[in-house]
Amino acid sequence: MRQLVPLTITFCVGTLLIVSVFIPPLGDLERTFTLWFDIIAVFAFFLGGGNLLRVHINKLRRRKTDWGFSIVTLAGFSTMLAAGLFKIGNPGDIATAVDAPGSMFYTIFDSVVVPLGSTMYSLLAFFVASASYRAFRAKNREATLLLVAAFIILLGRTPFGLMLTEWVPDSFSLLQIPNLAIWIMNSPNLAGQRAIMIGIGLGVISMSLRLILGIERSYLGGDNA
Amino acid sequence: MNRSTYIVVGVVVVLFLISWILKAVSLSGEDDGYILRGFLITMSAFLTLAIFSFLYRDNPFYKFAEHLFVGVSAAFWMTQGFWSTIVGNLIPRLSAGLSGFFMVPHQPSPWNISYWIPVILGILLLMRLSAKYGWLSRWPLALIVGTTAGLNFVRYLRSDFIVQVSSTFVPLLGREPHQWQGAGAFVSQLDLSATGQLAALLTNWVIFVGVFCGIVYFFFSKEHTGVFGRASRVGIWVLMITFGASFGYTVMGRISLLVGRVTFLFRDWLELIS
Amino acid sequence: MPNVGVLVPLVAIFGGLIWLLVRAIRGREVERRVIFMFIFVAVATPILFPITFQEHATPVVKNLFDRIENLPSGSTILMSFDFDPAMAPEVQPMANALSRHCLAREHKIVFMCLWATGQSLLNTTLEYVIRPDFPHLVDGVDFVNVGYKAGNEGVLNVIVSDFKKMFPTDVNGVPLDGVEIFDKVGSCKDFDLILTVGGGRPGPKEWVLFVGDPADVPIGAGVAAVVAPQLYPYYPRQVIGILGGIKGAAEYESELVKTHPRFENMEKPGLRMMGPQTLAHVVILAFIVIGNIAFFRGRRGKKTE
Question: Model-level pTM greater than 0.90?
Fold first, then answer.
C-alpha cells in the first residue's frame, strides 16, 4: 500500500502524459490530469501554511529561542489570511478579485510584501560588491577569462562603455565595448549556456524515465515499507 | 532583551510616530485617507530600513521584518490559490450551490464527479501534518511527481535537446547576408565591424565549437586526456566566459533592485525627488 | 556650471576609491561596511541628482519591438506577469512599456499570471499605468485580466490547447464566453504573440517549453538580468526577443518614445535607473581592479620572501 500505490500512480500518470503527445484523442484526458495537478498544487500551499503554523505554535509553546518573533509570524499570517478569505474592504462583490486595489489584502501586499520582498533581494547588491572586492581574483587562466568577461559585460551594459570606446572606427566596431558585450552574449555565452542546457535536458529526461519506471524512489521518503 | 535594546526600540517607535505625522501632514492636501496613507508609507519605509539594518549586523528589527514577511507571504499564496483555483476551477465543477454563493458560473458535466479525486488527494496531502497517517501523502505526491515527469520528459526532449542540437549546426562558411563567395571575396571584405562577415563567421564557429567542447567537458565517462582533454579544456574556457557573463548580469540585476528601494525611500517617503 | 550636488558625492566616491587603492597596496584590510557605504552612495547620488543617458535598442530588444510594431492593429497578444516584488523594480518597467506599446498599436491584450504575486503587481500596472494613459479603453473589449492560476507548467499545459478550461472567467468572475476578445481565441495557438515578463520558475523557459514550441507561437520575453543569459540559446528561433534587466527596459522605453512621441512625458523608470546603474557598475569594476592589484602585490611579496 505504502509503496505500490504511489509507484503505480506515478507510472500511470507519467506514461499517459507522454503517450498523449502522440495520440491526440487522449489530449482531453491529459488536460484533466493536469488540472487535477493544479488543484493539488493549491493543497500544497495549504500544507505549507499548516506547517508554518505548526512550527511557530510549537516554538511559542516551548518558549524556544526568539519565540517572540513567532508571534509576529502568526499575527502576519492570520491578518493576511483573514483579509484575503473574507475579502475585507474589497471594493466589489464576492466575485471581485481578492487583490482589487483598495482591498485590505492589496494594501497589505503593497505596504508589507512589496517592500520586504524587494529589499530582501536588494541586500545582495551589497554582498556582490563586497565579493567583487575580496574574492574576484585573476588567480589562473580560467579565473581571468571569467573576470574579463564579467568586466566587459559590466562596462558594456552601461553608457559608460560606449563613451570609453566611441572613438573606435566603424570598421573595427566589434572592439567597441558595448558591441563586444553583445558578441559575448550571442557567442560564447550562448555556446556555454547551450552546453549546460543540453546537459540538464538529458538529466531531466533520464530522471523522468527513472521516476516513471519506479527506479528512482527517493520522493517516497526514507521509510519505503 | 537588555536595557539598551529597549532604548533603541523606544527611539525607533518615536521616529516612526514623527515620520507618520509628517507624512500625513504632507499628504493632507491631496488625499482623503491621508492618515492611513501616511501610516502605510511610513510602515513600508521602516520595514525597508529594518531589512537594510542587517548590513550592520543581525538585530531584532531585521528578525521582526523577516518573520513578518514569512507569515504574510504564506497567507498571501494560500489565499490567492484558494480564490483563483479552488473557487475558480474546482467549485464550478463540483457544486451549483457553492458556485452561486461565490458568484462563479457553474460548469455542469457528467465527468465532473472525477474532480473529487484531486480533492481527496489534496486532503491526503494534508495528512503529511499527521505523524500517524503521514504516509498517505505519498499518493498525491506520486501524482505530482508523475505529472511533472511526464510533462517534462517530452518538453525537455524537444526544446532543450533536439532544438538546441539542431540550432548548433550553423553554417560555418557564412549565410545571408554574409554568404560565402570564395576566399578572395572574404579577404577583400575583411574588417572587424560588429555587423561584418568576420564577426558573423566568428560567432558561428564559437557557437559550434563551444557547444561541442562544453558538452565534452560534461562527459565524465571517459578520461579527459589527449584530444578529448584538450576539447574539454576549451569547454572550460567557454563555460568560464559564460559564468563571467552571468556574473555581470547578476550584478546588474541586484543593483537595479537596490535602485528601486532607494528610489522608494527618497521619493515616496522622504519626498527628496519628484 | 556643473551640478555641485553631483560633484561632491562623485569626488567623495572617487577620492574614497583612491584611499581604498592605497590601503589595498599597503596590504591593509577594509571593513565590509565601508564597501557597503560606497555602493549606497554610488546608487543614491544619481537618484538624488539624476544623470540621464541616451539608449539605443540592441538587436535582441529591437526584434521584439519591431514584431509588436509590425503586427496588424487589433492583433491579440497574451501577456503574462510572472514575477514577484523581488524582481519588480527590474521587470515591471518592461511590463509597463510593453503594455503601453501594445495598446498604442491598438492590439488586444489578455493579461494573466503564473505567479500569485504577479496578479497584484498586474493590478498596479492596470491602475497606475494603463487606466491613466488609456482612459478610453474598455476592460473586456480592449484588454482583459484573467488573473492567476496555481499549477505552474500545469497551467501552461492546459491553456496550450484549451484556454477556457483553465480560465473559465476573468479575474472578476465574468465568463470569458461573453468577452469579445475570446470570440477568436480558443487556445494559446490563437494568439498572435505571447509576452512573458518574469525571471523565476515558472517563467520564460516554461513558456518556451510548454507553449511556444508545441503550439508554434512566437514568444517575447522580458526577464530579470539574473536569468537573461540563460535565455540566449532560445534566441531567435524559440524566443523572438529578450529584454534583459533594467538595461533592456531602458532600451525598450527609448525605442518606444522614438517611435511614439506621445509617450515623451511618460514615466521612464528604465532610463531613469540607468544613471545609478552606471555609477554602481563603475564602482564595482573599481573594486575588482583594486582587489586584484592588492592580490598581485601580495603574491609578488610572498614570492620575494
Answer: yes
